[in-house]
Amino acid sequence: MAGSYRGITLLSTLLGGLLMAASLLASAGVSAPVVPQGKGEQCVEPTADMRKNHMEYLLHQRDKTMHQGIRSKQHSLKECINCHVQANKAGDYPSVHGTNSEQHFCDSCHSYAAVKIDCFDCHADRPASPSAAKGAKP
Predict the structure, then answer these.
(1) How far is 115 from 107, CA to CA, in rounded Å?
(2) CA neighbor of 38 nearest in space, from 100, 72, 107, 86
(3) CA distance 117 to 67
């Protein structure tokens, strides 16, 4: 358990450093990633908080689900995907594994920060169905 906490702390520190590096690059004239807007009026947490802490929210949600059997929508990866991953003009959804991965909500920042995400080795990287995506709430 202590090793898990150290790993999360290390990951948080690394992500914080990457975000700082991205900020410095942006101020140096390097273009920042284009992040698609979510469908809801506002996110479940303030934008700055989500940029900094989204991984902690996802890990906490995972632990509640896997260890305690508690499922909620607020920090659910599935709900994030339903709200934030949007179809292109042809109606196709970008994938983190495809050639258009930079258009995927998650991959747009993770590629920019050179952070490999493995969530989608098991989880869906696109909304479950078009109707789920259209009716998504924050």
Answers:
(1) 9
(2) 86
(3) 22
Helix H segments across 1-138? Answer: 2-27, 47-68, 77-84, 105-112, 130-134
Q: At what angle do helices 2-27 and 47-68 cross, to 10 degrees?
A: 160
Q: Which two tokens stand for residue 74?
A: 């607020």
Kindly list the domain boundaries of the chain, sorted by start residue.
Answer: 2-134
pTM: 0.67
Which token pair is 120? 């989608």
DSSP 104: S
Count CB atoms within 10 A of the CB of residue 73. 14
Both tokens of 102, joined, read 């930079």
Residuewise pLDDT in 10s, the chain (138 residues): 566 666 666 666 666 666 666 666 566 666 778 787 888 888 999 999 998 999 999 999 999 999 999 999 999 999 999 999 988 888 889 999 877 788 899 998 898 888 988 999 999 999 986 555 454 444
Q: Which two tokens mark 17? A: 């450093």
What six digits make up the tokens of 101?
């991965």
